[in-house]
Amino acid sequence: MVYRGPYKVRVEEKDMxxxxxxxxxxxxxxRAAICGSDLHLYHGxxxxxxxxxxxxxxxxxxxxxxxxxxQNLKPGDRVMVPFNVYCGSCYFCARGLxxxxxxxxxxxxxxxxxxxxxxxxxxxxxxxxxFVRVPxxxxxxxxxxxxxxxxxxxxxxxxxxxxxxxxxxxxxxxxDTVAVFGAGPVGLFAAxxxxxxxxxxxxxxxxxxxxxEKARSFAHAExxxxxxxxxxxxxxxxxxxxxxxxxxxxxxxxxxxGNFLQHVTGAKLKLQGGSPVALxxxxxxxxxxxxxxxxxxxxxxxxxxxxxxxxxxGLTLRMNQCPVKRQWPRLFEHIRNGYLKPSDIITxxxxxxxxxEGYHIFSAxxxxxxxxxxxxxAG
Amino acid sequence: MPYRAxxxxxxPSADELRARIPGWGADLDPKDRPAVPKERFDPAASGAHWDxxxxxxxxxxxxxxxxxxxxxxxxxxxxPPKGLSGALRKLAYRKxxxxxxxxxLILIAADRxxxxxxxxxxxxxLRPDNPITETGVLSEFSNKGLSSRTGSKRADVNHQWLDPxxxxxxxxxxxxAAVAILRTLTNRRR
Lengths: 379, 190
Prior knowledge:
The complex is a heterodimer of chains A (379) and B (190).
Chain A: E1 2-5, E2 8-10, E3 25-33, H1 38-42, E4 58-66, E5 78-81, E6 84-85, E7 113-114, E8 131-134, E9 142-143, H2 150-156, H3 159-169, E10 177-181, H4 185-196, E11 201-206, H5 209-219, E12 222-225, H6 232-239, E13 245-250, H7 260-268, H8 277-285, E14 286-294, H9 307-312, E15 316-319, H10 324-336, E16 348-351, H11 355-363, E17 372-375
Parallel strand pairs in A: 10-11, 10-13, 11-12, 13-14, 14-15, 16-17
Antiparallel strand pairs in A: 1-2, 3-4, 3-8, 3-17, 4-5, 5-9, 6-7
Chain B: H1 14-20, H2 83-95, H3 101-122, H4 131-135, H5 139-142, H6 145-149, H7 162-189
């Protein structure tokens, strides 16, 4: 697929990706997913989203070709590829901060490399395609282990790893009340992960009833439909005996609803790095001394965040793009033990040729869409 | 109530939660959490077999943040800058750091210019842009466009009407301006 401008994508024939560095691999994509953060690109919110780019940072596939210095992969290997492009050897990678790699993104120092996520994230084409270039093949991709099915592997490349990481950043202790803003894939996985870390209550907040139903059935969570409350912050206080949640997780990011002015200035007019409604609600809903974990993606421009309340309440704000591969060994265990079944959230399978419809369905939240998977060569 | 020392409210016991939630408490010990501690110095863990990566060939002068001391060794080559939008992008990278609003606002403006340039360029090809197929809007009819928005309170329906305005608005304005110019020219000739 290629981006053609805000709200427009189409399928085009592009040149076959080439080995551009000795440690590159070319991967033939078997499955890709559309992420909620792809919608920020699709809506033209992320600076450096150029016409002609191919999106897609969640994908798995088969190695087609490897560069001369690749030691750990060979053609024919089935691999899952973390959304981070990273070198494995810079100051940050040496400390496990793979999402903050300094050797892969000329366009910005504040963010590492991400497949198919604008030039602000390095200018790499993504995996919503038949083939994709995968830099640092000895570092990022892993062979899909036995016992992990393709759909589960696909969701581990971002959504599951990010949700699990988000719950960890909450520093949850036994019995904590955890409020998760957003019942999309990352929010659902964060809610599910909060239980693994010993939460006593998990409350998921959204406005889409079908997603809240999924939060109840998939993530065993209590739910709040904020569209049914005049003031969701007051409701969150009431439901926590006026204490507030111990931990709040923002799993919404730049296109949050709930405040018309914030949404229009952030998501439509691009005058902010995003609409920080969910983050502000998290700040106001969490208890004094509590922790906020930000997993929602925001653009690099300023946003109208309520830092005064965060300061006065003594909050701890934690955030990062997920260093995906660090999460995998433990997530493999949880999947094998039956604690997690990530593919349960997939709702749509869309041939690559119909990707424009896939983006519209996901963007407009049609047909109870939670997670669309793109299948190249489906015909 | 938080006006006294005890944590308010009642919680189910660990045993109750363990019985109800698959895997409850499996990561209760922070030592089992892979993101703890945040930084863990272990250069060998990544699989990298280099101190510094070989450099990828730079096939055109690669735009880069002035906060970088040097061009990083590996980078994407998806869409080289071109046209007026490319000139704007080069300006944003050459002159302003990531800490300056001007950097990002110029890049956002360049994205809009890029879209217009690309649409116009497409009209000179055998495959001009088609807003019907490229927006996927026909899925409104095949994927419950109406029923998805009715029957429950959705907070996003109050602004979704803006989406077609954002997509079609610039074209309508440009078309209107073209008609106005043509009329003016025609009237002058008369």
